[in-house]
Amino acid sequence: MVALGTRELELSIGGEDVTAQITNCEILSNPAESEQTTFAEAKTGGPRRYSLKGVLLQDTSDGSLWDQIWSAAGTTVAVLLKPYGGAATADKKHYSGNVVIKDPDGTLLGGDADASTTGRWTVEIEWDFTAKPTAVTGP
Asked: In the predicted model, is pLDDT for residue 131 greater than 80?
């Protein structure tokens, strides 16, 4: 068993490493709304919706993760989440898929004043995967 730590996670979006721009990252699984449920879906608990949820630093520089929200909302991009960092192995899987970039609900830019010289504004995201992410066990 190799338990997950809280410091090793790496994330790339669209092939670019954005690890230095995030402070929280999760893959969520929730029930999906569906007009029709197949017997196969019902057998496994019903249809699911997967999303990438996270908190990222507000950085308006061209090409930043925040800039992708501003300039590319509605675009589908590849995601690779490495919970253990480094290379994928059978014991330390990576998870890949495609997400649709969307504007956050709530704050997009700005925040509260703070006297800290190191404090940074953040924005919360939740982008839907186009399908269940795939476990990757090797290069």
From this structure: yes
Quick: pLDDT tens for 3-17.
888 899 999 999 999
- Residue 49 clears pLDDT 90, i.e. is over it: yes
Whole-angstrom Cα distance, residue 85 to residue 96?
13
Mean pLDDT for 131-138 is 94
Instruction: Record the tokens describing residue 87, joined without a space.
Output: 């290379």
Q: Is 14 helix (H, G, I), strand (E, B) or coil?
A: coil
Main-chain phi, psi angles of 82, to 5 degrees? -115, 90
The pLDDT of residue 137 = 93
Across 65-90, b (16+ Cβ under 10 Å) vs e yields: bbebbeeeeeeebebbbbbbeeebee
List the domain boundaries for the chain: 10-32+43-136
The residue behind tokens 């495609």 is 98
How far is C-alpha 68 from the chain's CA centre? 13
The 3-state secondary structure of 51-79 reads EEEEEEECCCCCCCHHHHHHHHCCCEEEE
| pTM score | 0.89
Q: What CA–CA distance (Å, rounded) separates 15 from 17?
A: 7
